[in-house]
């Protein structure tokens, strides 16, 4: 975003009441005519700006259409989304963040798109990302962590999404290991974490978040309709995508900061609180055998801990889980 404009929005946002043209002009070191021109541009972008004589300007509301301005307006974060890039259409936000990471963009950089034409899931699966219907966003992180702890950031992201949904609605989100977000047994969100690392240090991580927000039932592709849904479809009403994105970013920052200072315990507890079928018995298959076990919880390395009928505990890194009624295999 053009920086004067960004600063202008930040200033308008800081003040509860109006801010005078003179004050804006002093702070930004540009003429009052220039301020007036910027205001007109913001109005063209769909901002509702009130101008009151002798008091100054105030933003009453930001436009519905997502843009860098509107996403950053009111985003009172310390480090996440200060560099934020919005695109109408991309192949995949993941790829853009990888490029930005290589160019040296900072921790907390966010890329978001209205539509992805090559949205990707784990293991080269496809991620359906229709225009204007969901959150297709990638976050660049530069954590000071050993690579083996990287899976904790995926678990962290899942808890953030679950918390956001709980705070904004009466829906009860559940996290299905490793990282699907379910509502009423159907997937509304997926997380793709990709890491660039050397042997003992992470260079950077890209956390990709895909969240179905406003698709109607028939807008979900037919082949996944039995197992996928959207927030609107489950809550019965339209969601404001920008506010939802801002909510995710604020919570992400807060949770990440807590994780940095206090470690993984709180994430683990929160994940397990939302964990799908935790404490229940499911059937598990690996290449070697099939057995029944109770899901106990997650481990610091992202493994799923299970207990068989003889009381033996085991850590699973990859396995096929038969989730039972309503569930499905990843
Ligand atoms: P995943 O491998 O767990 O899930 C992919 C599987 O989920 C697909 O094979 C399909 O069965 C199903 N699926 C595809 N699209 C959807 C959808 N919209 N809703 C529900 N189920 C679906 C999950 O991978 C990780 C997804 C991350 C997506 C984000 S979006 C921003 C970023 N950019 C990008 O290209 N990927 C990430």
TrEMBL record:
Keyword Protein biosynthesis found: no
InterPro entries: aa-tRNA-synth_II/BPL/LPL, ArsR-like_HTH, Bifunct_BirA, Biotin_CoA_COase_ligase, BPL_C, BPL_LPL_catalytic, HTH_11, Transcriptional_repressor_C
Entry EC number(s): 6.3.4.15
NCBIfam families xref list: birA_ligase
Xref: HAMAP family: Bifunct_BirA
PANTHER family registered for this protein in UniProt: BIOTIN PROTEIN LIGASE, BIOTIN--PROTEIN LIGASE
Designated name of the protein: Bifunctional ligase/repressor BirA
Lineage of source species: Bacteria, Bacillati, Bacillota, Bacilli, Bacillales
Chain's gene name: birA
């Amino acid at each position: 975003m053009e920086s004067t404009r960004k600063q202008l929005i930040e200033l308008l946002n800081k003040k509860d009441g109006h801010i005078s043209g003179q004050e804006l002009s002093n702070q930004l070191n540009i003429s009052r005519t220039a301020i007036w021109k910027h205001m007109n541009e913001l109005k063209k972008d769909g901002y509702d700006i009130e101008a009151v004589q002798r008091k100054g300007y105030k933003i009453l509301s930001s436009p519905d259409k997502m843009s860098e301005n509107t996403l950053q307006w009111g985003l009172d974060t310390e480090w996440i989304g200060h560099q934020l890039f919005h695109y109408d259409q991309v192949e995949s936000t993941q790829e853009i963040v990888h490029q930005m990471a290589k160019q040296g963009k900072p921790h907390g950089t966010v890329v978001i798109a209205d539509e992805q034409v090559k949205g990707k899931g784990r293991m080269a699966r496809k991620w359906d990302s229709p225009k204007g219907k969901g959150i297709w966003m990638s976050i660049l992180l530069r954590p000071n962590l050993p690579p083996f702890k990287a899976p904790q950031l995926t678990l962290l992201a899942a808890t953030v999404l679950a918390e956001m949904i709980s705070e904004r609605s009466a829906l009860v989100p559940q996290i299905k290991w490793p990282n699907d977000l379910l509502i009423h047994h159907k997937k509304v969100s997926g997380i793709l974490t990709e890491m660039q690392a050397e042997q003992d240090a992470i260079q950077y991580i890209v956390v990709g978040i895909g969240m179905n927000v406003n698709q109607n039932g028939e807008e979900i592709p037919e082949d996944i309709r039995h197992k996928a849904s959207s927030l609107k479809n489950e809550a019965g009403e339209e969601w404001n995508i920008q506010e939802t994105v801002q909510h995710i970013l604020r919570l992400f920052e807060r949770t990440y900061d807590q994780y940095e200072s206090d470690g993984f315990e709180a994430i683990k507890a929160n994940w397990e609180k939302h964990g799908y079928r935790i404490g229940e018995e499911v059937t598990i298959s690996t290449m070697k055998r099939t057995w029944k076990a109770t899901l106990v919880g997650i481990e610091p390395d992202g493994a799923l801990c299970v207990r068989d009928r003889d009381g033996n505990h085991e850590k699973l890194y990859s396995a096929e889980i038969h989730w039972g009624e309503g569930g499905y295999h990843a």
